[in-house]
From TrEMBL:
It comes from Trinickia violacea. Belongs to the DyP-type peroxidase family. Residues 12-142 form the Dyp-type peroxidase N-terminal domain. Keywords: Iron, Metal-binding, Oxidoreductase, Peroxidase. Its cofactor is heme b. One of its GO terms (cellular component) is cytosol. This is Dyp-type peroxidase. The keyword Metal-binding applies. The keyword Translocase does not apply. InterPro entries: Dimeric_a/b-barrel, Dyp_perox_C, Dyp_perox_N, Dyp_peroxidase.
Length: 316
């Protein structure tokens, strides 16, 4: 339900503007109370570090969102726990599976230039020191006109403005965590030779949009298995959206071509429903053919406290 945003604690920079560069970092917590205390103290430093690094290039749009896994929340902060926070749920099987991989802390660092992301990541990870082990780090870049690695414009149907806030920021449904959000991430690797061997028309039927002009295919020709069909959800006649900021990444010399998926919502449920539709199919078997050319190699679900709660967590 739409909510009145004026009384909501300031969310973290979930709805920040589109930027050119990103670093996604996933880390696991080291065992022991001393390490937990270090991470709690760090929570209070995050905003100041973003300000210090960001002020050096005021036009650079530097931002950082921090999230915590269910088990990290219990270890670090205990009760109360965000109502919908749980371990990443896997979907699918065999080759086509949304896998869960280790990860307690997520950093989503965005800016218009990589040096800002790099400097902030260095400062944030440096302060965490031996309290965490980074298990995945991906530097992503904006690819021409907001295109994904598979060549289609990505992010077109994202909600914007007030609608983006309504779909991503927790309201009265979880009073202790108003202003928070949930974020789900997956690192995908693509079989670009296979994908590029398809005709543009075949690719368009897989995505559900035209490649060059990014227009949705007509309902009469758009397959129910298309990516855009399977990720469109309706509840009581109203579309339920999530906010994505996927970025391409890769190492052409090593044959690595990837998309880092990141989706924010005020409950994990719609993102999980999309995953089920993509990996299992709607109905089962009618799965997302993009997955014949894309393999999820990581998966994590995190809670994003409001900016004010993040600072207060240091005192828990
Ligand atoms: C739409 C790419 C994974 C959710 C799109 C579009 C592209 C795209 C090109 C069409 C333009 C747009 O509206 O953004 C990809 C790639 C992925 C990926 C390359 C990784 C291989 C996912 C996952 C989810 C998701 C894992 C959710 C769990 C959505 C949603 C839309 C969308 C909600 C908008 C659908 C609509 O309203 O028409 N994606 N996507 N995507 N994708 Fe993905």
């Amino acid at each position: 339900m739409p909510q009145d945003t004026k009384d909501v604690p300031e969310p973290q920079a979930i709805c920040s503007p589109i930027t050119r560069s990103v670093i996604y970092i996933v880390a696991t917590l080291a065992a022991g109370e001393a390490h937990a205390a270090k991470v709690r103290a760090w929570c209070e430093d995050v905003a100041a570090l973003v300000r210090s690094v960001g002020k050096r290039v005021p036009s650079g749009n530097l931002s950082c969102v921090c999230g915590f896994s269910a088990s990290a929340w219990d270890t670090l902060f205990g009760a109360p726990r965000p109502a919908q926070l749980h371990a990443f749920r896997e979907f699918g099987e065999g080759e086509r599976r949304a896998v869960a991989t280790p990860g307690d802390l997520l950093l989503h660092i965005r800016a218009d230039q990589m040096d800002l992301c790099f400097e902030l990541a260095t400062q944030l990870v440096g302060r965490l020191g031996d309290a965490v082990t980074v298990v995945d780090e991906v530097q992503g870049f904006r690819y021409f006109d907001l295109r994904s690695m598979v060549g289609f414009v990505d992010g077109t149907e994202n909600p914007t403005g007030r609608e983006a806030v309504d779909f991503t920021v927790i309201g009265d449904e979880d009073p202790a965590f108003v202003g928070g959000s949930y974020v789900l991430v997956q690192k995908y690797l693509h079989d670009m030779s296979g994908w590029n061997a398809l005709s543009v028309e075949e690719q368009e039927r897989i995505i559900g949009r035209t490649k060059l002009s990014d227009i949705e295919l007509d309902e009469a020709v758009k397959p129910t298995s298309s990516h855009s069909a399977l990720t469109t959800l309706e509840e009581n006649g109203r579309e339920i959206k999530i906010l994505r900021d996927n970025m391409p990444f890769g190492r052409p010399g090593m044959g690595e071509f990837g998309t880092y998926f990141i989706g924010y919502a005020r409950s994990p449920a719609p993102i999980e429903q999309m995953l089920e539709n993509m990996f299992v199919g709607r109905p089962p078997g009618n799965y997302d053919r993009l997955l014949d050319y894309s393999r999820a190699v990581t998966g994590g679900l995190f809670f994003v406290p409001s900016a004010s709660l993040l600072e207060q967590l240091a005192e828990r």
